[in-house]
Amino acid sequence: MLRRRCLKLSFVIVFSMTTGFSLFLHRLEISEETAPLPLEHYCKNLHDKFLAMKQLKSAQNATKFFMEQLLHRTDLRSSCNASGKLFLTRNNTKLGQRITYEVDRKAFKLVDKMVYDMLPETHPWGTSRGLGRCAVVGNGGTLRNSKCGAEINSADFVIRHNLAPMNYSSDVGVKTNLVTVNPSQITESFQGLCHARRPFVEKAASHGDAHLAIAAFSYGPNTEISFRIFYTMRDMRPQQGVLYFHPDYLMTLDRYWRKKGLKCIRLSSGFMLMSAALELCEKVDLYGFWPFALDLFEKSLPNHYYDNIPAKRGVHTMPEEFMLLLEMHSQGVLQLHIGECQTPS
Ligand SMILES: *[C@@H]1O[C@H](CO)[C@@H](O)[C@H](O)[C@H]1NC(C)=O
Ligand SMILES: *[C@@H]1O[C@H](CO)[C@@H](O)[C@H](O)[C@H]1NC(C)=O
Ligand SMILES: *[C@@H]1O[C@H](CO)[C@@H](O)[C@H](O)[C@H]1NC(C)=O
Ligand SMILES: *[C@@H]1O[C@H](CO)[C@@H](O)[C@H](O)[C@H]1NC(C)=O
């Protein structure tokens, strides 16, 4: 069964990676062996097969790195320091200093009293590092009908993305501790918060008292809209705090993964928070991270668990990020959950 699944897995991945793989597919052998071996075993084989594939050179570079130097949380901690720098706080920011933008490193924002007053004293987790078992929930169509809700709810800390809809509780759960907000979705769905603010506040409230996390200082135009989110929440729903990603943290993280061979224009927010979770949590479980159009049984999947609207092209390279996740999964650094969750009997 597992073997079958992983062959399917390899098929789907290969299938999704365009052109020229028919030879590779023919070489996949299906043995009669029935003894169940861990999925990881097959994914390791899969990984070795990937290494032989010319078309995946850049991913090959990335995976090779991990063969030579295992990813250690300490490595991320000393390089990126999510526990002290994930968000701008009064603890890591001084009144009067300049914040350099993540992408446009020539642009900066002065931390005047107005900005400083928006910052929380410290990170929501204070000085403690252990957030316990964290569930990082992506928005992939693989979550649809997954029945993962209960498992996700049982995590100590749940991270979600782009104010994902919460009306699929049996598949995605109900608990959220941190949810990202993409400034572009405020422009597209909430008129930039220039008019009615209640629809946005209600959307945020569907995540309970979760903090909202925004990349306010990545691109110049994000800043103003992020401030509007801050004031909207402060005035209408103060129990739900707004946090700004530290642009230095995001920049360091980007460099960190580039050095490890990941080639992309910009890391996806899922990948960013997966990295932060590796530093902050004792155990990291990923749900809804599956960038392919087919599931393990070759059934087609919607783009998100809540709709089938295609993602913007050319910004994120999900399959490449996924290769790294698969690699870390096979090393036991994190746990990927694809498809249905086991229902506890
Ligand atoms: C692999 O990485 C090295 C160093 O980063 C680079 O010079 C080389 O071009 C990469 N190979 C491919 C095929 O991308
Ligand atoms: C992480 O950041 C905090 C707060 O800025 C600092 O106290 C700590 O020394 C940093 N840790 C590392 C490993 O750089
Ligand atoms: C951050 O705050 C904690 C407790 O409030 C304090 O112990 C620590 O020294 C502060 N770190 C910095 C870099 O100011
Ligand atoms: C969730 O809400 C959306 C928008 O209101 C709706 O289109 C969708 O059918 C709902 N899904 C479920 C499972 O309730």
From TrEMBL:
Subcellular location: Golgi apparatus membrane
Entry keyword annotation includes Transferase: yes
Keyword Cell membrane: no
Gene3D superfamilies hit by this protein: Glycosyl transferase family 29 (3.90.1480.20)
Main subcellular location: Golgi
Disulfide partners: 134-281
Membrane topology reported for the UniProt record: Single-pass type II membrane protein
UniProt entry keywords in alphabetical sequence: Disulfide bond, Glycoprotein, Glycosyltransferase, Golgi apparatus, Membrane, Signal-anchor, Transferase, Transmembrane, Transmembrane helix
Gene Ontology molecular-function annotations: alpha-N-acetylneuraminate alpha-2,8-sialyltransferase activity
GO cellular component, one term: Golgi membrane
Transmembrane segments: 7-25
Biological processes per GO annotation: N-glycan processing; oligosaccharide metabolic process
Family indicated by similarity: Belongs to the glycosyltransferase 29 family.
Name recorded for this polypeptide: Uncharacterized protein
